[in-house]
Amino acid sequence: MERIGLSTGWRIVCGAWMAGVIAAAFIGVGPAAGFREPEAARILFFHVPVAWLAVLGFLGATFHAVRYLRRRNPAADIRAVASAEMGFLFCVLATLSGALFARVQWGAAWNWDPRQTSIVALLLVYAAYFTLRSAVAEPERRAALSAVYAIVATLPMLFLVFILPRVVESLHPADTVRSGGMSPDYRVVFFAALGAFTLLYLWIYRLRVAVGELERVACRHSMK
Amino acid sequence: MSPLHEVMVVVLVIWAGLFAYLWRLDTRIREGARQQREAPGDQPDDAPEAVLEPGPGRLGEE
């Protein structure tokens, strides 16, 4: 089995880093101009990193699904499902934080904005992945079928995240980070938040993989 | 204390709870993995299995 979770040092770094980001988000930056409720702009330090990490999780599921189909290694299947679960979890967090922000900024939590609609479709695509996994009892068949599904699901995922919200008119701001729409202090806290959430993602992901490995060994023992 | 600072304290408390939970989970999973490694008869998946095969030219030699 690989390393489990994070080392004690990295765990402390993760805890302190995230606490620092939270403090900086509330104390280190002021209210942002151009928002209906300027104080609410701070939610982007949470909302955007979790949305990025959701995409990372789904891409990780694709990567490990390809690895599984090439080598038929059960460890790759465990990593594929762990990545998909991480993507799903962070996608739910992005949806909830987005709805919270929409309520403040646009007056209603749900507006059927293209970005909101596409994220619901994305959740349904990956909910079907978990349904498929739970419907097949035999481990090898389950791993192979879900790997194929994860690879096929990559195309709608990329379309829903990167293409659809850009070709349809949307309330949602686009490319704020790249276009320089953030003030320097917001930019610093934003990238610090991105680092903290990535470390948190890595920690939870590694724990999930370790649990998967433990289950696999326990299952093998029970079959002997 | 301003409402903004109150929200910050609430978020920090939530993070502290989540962090403590993850730390405990990490410790328990490590403990579970250690117990599984020490369990009798356990062999990792990737470990080569011992196979007894007759060497060439040994069996049937007169």
- Any guess at the CATH architecture of chain A? Up-down Bundle
Assembly form of the protein: heterodimer
Poorly predicted residue ranges of chain B = none
Number of helices of chain B: 1
CATH topology term of chain A:
Four Helix Bundle (Hemerythrin (Met), subunit A)
Biggest interface pair, counts: A-B, 29 and 23 residues
The biggest sheet of chain A amounts to: none
Number of strands of chain B: 0
Note the main sheet of chain B.
none
Structure classification of chain B: mainly alpha
The beta-strand count of chain A equals: 0
In terms of DSSP E residues, the strand content of chain B is under 5%
Tell me the span between the first and last alpha carbons of chain B: 97 Å
Described by the principal axes of the CA atoms, the overall outline of chain A is globular
Q: How many domain regions of chain A? A: 1
What is the helical fraction of chain A, as a range of percent? over 70%
Order of helices and strands of chain A: HHHHHH
Present the secondary structure layout.
The complex is a heterodimer of chains A (about 220) and B (about 60).
Chain A: H1 8-28, H2 44-71, H3 74-105, H4 114-135, H5 139-167, H6 184-223
Helix pairs in contact in A: 1-6, 2-3, 2-5, 2-6, 3-4, 3-5, 3-6, 4-5
Chain B: H1 3-38
